[in-house]
Amino acid sequence: MNQLIEIFSGVGITQLTAGNIAMWLIAFVLFYLAIKKGVEPLLLVPIGFGIFAANFPLTGLLEEGGLFYIFYHYGIENELIPPLIFLGLGAMTDFGPVIANPKTLLLGAAAQLGVYVAFFGALLMGFTISEAACIGIIGGADGPTSIFLSANLAPHMMGSVAVAAYSYMALVPIIIPPIAKLLTTKQERAMVMTQMRMVSKTEKIVFPLLTSIVIMLLVPKSAPLIAMFMLGNLFMESGVVERLTNVSRDALMNIVTILLGVGVGSTMTAETFLTWKTIGVFIMGVVAFAFATAGGVLIAKLMNLFTKNKVNPLIGAAGVSAVPMAARVVHNLGAEANPQNYLLMHAMGPNVAGVIGTAVAAGAFISAIL
Questions:
Q1: Who's near 223: CB < 8 A, 6+ residues apart?
Q2: Of 43, 41, 23, which is closest to residue 32 (Cα–Cα)?
Q3: Contact between 85 and 291 (Cβ < 8 Å)
Q4: How many Å apart are CA 367 and CA 109, to the nearest integer?
């Protein structure tokens, strides 16, 4: 009899809990959003499957030496995968709009308002300072940076922060328009900006090197993300390492995306995810996004009071670093107000600057808190 009990105790179904089943349902929701609705499928499918598989009892996937433990411990906890994602992003990013119109760097920085509003809001809600920093960074609309910061400051919140960040990134077309319209007039949205100057190849090669010097000297803790971001960009702009560029933006990017998604999903067990704190993360994530959008638009309007070459305030909304989705949304808003308006390339300036700004914000949080 004892032997029979021992055999059955090793069968997973005998250890299954209501919490496990609830997490399966959450995984199925992510599958539905990714497959049926097209919401960030490259991340939500592996994250969803990571949640699904991690909530099977007795598999050993999460135990030391288990497959998911290896993905998480060596890829995310040791800060390897997020910088590799930034390498791929750098190899796909054109800094031309930022170089042609350096003022857009300020708009990318202004959009970080959402990060700090959500940070202080989370503190008021009772989160620890480390948890609040991880919640705040959701406002930067940059999934890899959110994961990088969580791995450093609050690993237990990584799953909920990552899902919130990627979910709200996918909702950019819904979140940005009402806020941008509320803060601008139709006349402002219809403003046609002057054509940008051509940027030389030399400028594009110098930019990642100069940016690395400035940022990594001022905010050293942002170096893992900034260094790889600028290296990927240098690969592309140098024009002499096409194989490295292609691998960075294609094969390597796809591989690390799988490992990142599964590794993050595996942190979302019933014990860590089904808490009131998770609800707080999603609430403050919306607040962060809203203030990030508003901050960029308002600073653009303020900038127009003191500069000769005016900018369409809408491009400030692209300062959230959901590249290039935010820039496309801004372009569509401008075209809606004036069919002759073409804002896409102008909006890419603050959009790319937002990626840099969020990485710098994450480095500043790590420096201040650790």
A1: 216, 363
A2: 41
A3: no
A4: 18
Residues in CB range of 98: below 8 A, 6 or more apart: 104, 105, 207, 349, 352, 353
As a whole number of angstroms, the distance between CA 194 and CA 213 comes to 31
The CA distances from residue 45 to 69, 74, 143, in Å, are: 19, 21, 15
Q: How far apart are CA 320 and CA 225, in angstroms?
A: 17
Give Cβ neighbours of residue 169 (< 8 Å, ≥ 6 apart): 40, 141, 143, 322, 325
**Residue 66 parent element (H or E):** none
Token reading at 282: 């999603």
* DSSP letters spanning 312-364: -GGGGGGGS--TTHHHHHHHHHHHHH-TT---HHHHHHHHHHHHHHHHHHHHH
Query: Cα(84)–Cα(246) distance, rounded to whole angstroms?
Result: 14
Per-residue pLDDT of the chain (370 residues; tens, 9 = 90+): 555 555 555 566 878 899 999 999 999 998 998 899 887 788 889 989 999 999 999 898 999 999 999 999 889 888 899 999 999 999 999 999 999 988 888 888 888 888 999 899 999 999 999 999 999 998 877 888 998 999 999 998 888 888 888 877 777 888 899 999 999 999 999 999 888 889 999 999 999 999 999 999 999 999 999 999 999 999 999 999 999 999 999 999 999 999 988 998 898 888 888 788 888 888 888 888 889 999 999 999 999 888 888 899 999 998 887 777 888 899 999 999 999 889 989 899 999 998 999 999 999 999 999 8
Q: 216, 237 in Cβ contact below 8 A? A: no
Q: Are 88 and 253 in contact (CB under 8 A)?
A: yes
Instruction: Check: CB of residue 130 under 8 Å from CB of residue 369.
Output: yes
User: CA 153, 159, 162: angle at the middle one, nearest 5?
Assistant: 85
Task: Provide the residue type at 261 as one letter.
Answer: G
Cβ neighbours for 364, distance < 8 A, ≥ 6 positions apart = 219, 221, 222
For residue 170 the two structure tokens come to 């996918």
Distance CA 169, CA 178 (A): 16
User: Which pair of tokens denotes residue 283?
Assistant: 């609430």
